[in-house]
Amino acid sequence: MEQRVSPEQEIWFQKEVQQLLKQDKASHPPQGAMLFVGSSIFRFWVTLERDMSPLPVINRAFGGARTWELLHYMDKIVLPYKPAIIIVYCGSNDMEFGSRAEDTALRFRQFCDRVHAALPETHVFFISINKAPQKIDKWPVIDRANSLIEAYCSAGHKAGYIDINPAFFKATGQPSHELYISDGLHFMPDAYKKITAIIKPILEQAWQEQHKK
Known about the structure:
This protein is α/β, with parallel strands linked by helices. The chain has helices at residues 14-27, 40-43, 48-52, 67-77, 92-95, 101-118, 139-154, 189-210, and strands at 34-38, 57-59, 85-89, 123-127, 159-162. Strand 4, helix 7 (139-154) and strand 5 form a beta-alpha-beta unit. Helix 4 (67-77) runs parallel beside helix 6 and helix 6 runs parallel beside helix 7. The radius of gyration is 17 Å and the shape is globular.
């Protein structure tokens, strides 16, 4: 009888990560910058450097990353940059493969543990998993994962939780569909403007605090 491979044992996006490593050899990204890492929500953020300016940023989001792949590749595209601050958007794709909220939250904690074992002063921020219209059937799992991760971050651990979901809903409680492209999942440019308005002041403050030391 063939043994079924669990989703967590499947590692995708090798070609994408190899391409990122080629970029590193060509451009030599700076040490001690802000690292954005995770899945396609960050990968498609083409105005990230401009939006975060003058903060120094590196974008190493890849494919449709899932949290177990983030763990798998972090020795290649997270730790070598020795970032002062890491911003993570990952977990949405976990749900499509049956991952429990508890498992997604656990893998984020494991990510933080590994970061702080190598880089004790680095602060990690988790951007809330977006409750996109396309994932309406997964919203309860998303809410649970976000809640668990927020609780972990609230307990310290040099980790912070930033909730972007309120910006994506109308006062009526309905999703703001105009912020999404036709797939109901990925973002229009105005959505990135909203995210910038939420997270940039937090990151600026964290950056200043890091550099007071």
